[in-house]
Amino acid sequence: DAGVIQSPRHEVTEMGQEVTLRCKPISGHDYLFWYRQTMMRGLELLIYFNNNVPIDDSGMPEDRFSAKMPNASFSTLKIQPSEPRDSAVYFCASSFSGQGQGGYTFGSGTRLTVV
Amino acid sequence: QKEVEQNSGPLSVPEGAIASLNCTYSDRGSQSFFWYRQYSGKSPELIMSIYSNGDKEDGRFTAQLNKASQYVSLLIRDSQPSDSATYLCAGGAAGNKLTFGGGTRVLVKP
């Protein structure tokens, strides 16, 4: 299995631009999570899906952030417009409920820099 | 307020010694606990899970859970330089959702 695949690995954008991060979970996994990691705040859960349905988006910082999961093999996290404080590493993770809680597999992450 | 607390470190241990990492949590609804290892510039990797009070051993790693004290720990025996990383404690309640601590940085010195 190729694991959780995220793209792009690095993104540098100017303030005000739209940014789209992409994630392909492990086939068969029914949970998908988007996390953001910074030195100051650590790993923060932004939103998670179960069977493609958003379950909890309380961690999404502002209306500028949105996430979709149109099918079981693809999810996007969009920031529009982007701001310098959005600079962070964004991780996607997936898990399978049948293997017990918490068996997350993380993607390699997208390092976002907003200048 | 973070629901999972860890000492940020760095925890410096000599090669071959035991590294002891601690974690406390505030959500009494948490039922399962995990330790993830994260190397610099890499993604977190699951190394241990524990669901019941007591100890759980896997190779050089031992996880300990005390739900009454809301305390989780990780012991790394015979520490190696390759164990130098940040270790993240996480607690889970409902719905496969985990809350992570800030991580403890471990440095193993040869």
Structure description:
- The complex is a heterodimer of chains A (115) and B (110).
- Chain A is built from no helices and eleven strands.
- Chain A has 115 residues and is an all-beta fold.
- In chain A, strands 2, 4, 5, 6, 9, 10 and 11 form a seven-stranded mixed sheet that branches.
- In chain A, a hairpin with a 2-residue loop joins strand 5 and strand 6.
- Chain A is globular.
- Chain B has 110 residues and is mostly beta strands.
- In chain B, a hairpin with a 2-residue loop joins strand 6 and strand 7.
- The mean pLDDT of chain B is 93.
- Chains A and B meet through strand 4, strand 5 and strand 10 of A and strand 4, strand 5, strand 9 and strand 10 of B.
Essential attributes:
heterodimer, A: about 120 residues, mainly beta, 7-stranded mixed sheet, 4-stranded antiparallel sheet, 11 strands, about 0% helix, about 55% strand, B: about 110 residues, 6-stranded mixed sheet, 5-stranded antiparallel sheet, globular
Assign a percent range to the helix content of chain A. Answer: under 10%
> Which word captures the global form of chain B?
globular
Uncertain spans of chain B, ≥5 residues at pLDDT below 50?
A: none
Structural class of chain B: mainly beta
Give the arrangement of secondary structure elements.
The complex is a heterodimer of chains A (115) and B (110).
Chain A: E1 5-7, E2 10-13, E3 19-24, E4 31-38, E5 42-50, E6 53-56, E7 65-71, E8 74-79, E9 88-95, E10 105-106, E11 110-114
Parallel strand pairs in A: 2-11
Antiparallel strand pairs in A: 1-3, 3-8, 4-5, 4-9, 5-6, 7-8, 9-10, 9-11
Chain B: E1 4-6, E2 11-14, E3 19-25, E4 32-38, E5 45-50, E6 54-58, E7 61-66, E8 71-76, E9 85-92, E10 98-100, E11 104-109
Parallel strand pairs in B: 2-11
Antiparallel strand pairs in B: 1-3, 3-8, 4-5, 4-9, 6-7, 7-8, 9-10, 9-11
